[in-house]
Amino acid sequence: MTSTLLQAAYKAIDDKHGEDIVVLNMEGISLLADYFIITHGNSDRQVQAIARELQDVAVKEGHEIRRVEGFDGARWILVDLGDVVAHVFHKDERSYYNLERLWGDAPQLDIPQA
Q: HAMAP family from the xrefs (predicted)?
C-alpha cells in the first residue's frame, strides 16, 4: 500500500510540475513516516496547486490525509499522508531549510514515472 501511495504522490507532484523531486527512504531513521517527498514550486500559486493535487489524489485513491500545514502561507506546505509525508517548498525556502542535508543519512529513492 505504501508503494502505491508513494507512486501516486510522486505522480501528483510531477503532474503539477514540482521541481527537483527527491524521495527519501525514512524507514529506520524517522518515526514520522516511511518516506519523505521533497519538492518545490516557483510561485505561491504553484506550491498550493501541488499540495492541492496531492490531497485530491490521496482522497481519490482512498488514503487518509492526516494533516496539512502551511497551505495559506505557501512557503512550506507539509502534507502528511501517514507513511508518506510531502514537503512542498517555495523555491526561495527550499535551500534555506535544506531537508536533504538535514536527513542526509536517508537513502534517496529513484521513483520511475508512471
A: Iojap_RsfS
Sheet of strand 35-41, all strands in order from the earlier edge strand to the far edge: 67-69, 76-80, 84-90, 35-41, 19-25, 108-109
C-alpha distances in angstroms, 39 versus 1, 15, 60, 82? 22, 12, 22, 18
Burial of 13 (0-12, 13-18, 19+ CB in 10 A): buried
Q: Is the pTM of this model over 0.85?
A: yes
Q: Mean pLDDT of successive 10-residue segments in the chain (114 residues)? A: 85 96 92 94 97 96 94 96 96 93 89 62
**Strand 84-90 relative to strand 35-41, pairing:** parallel
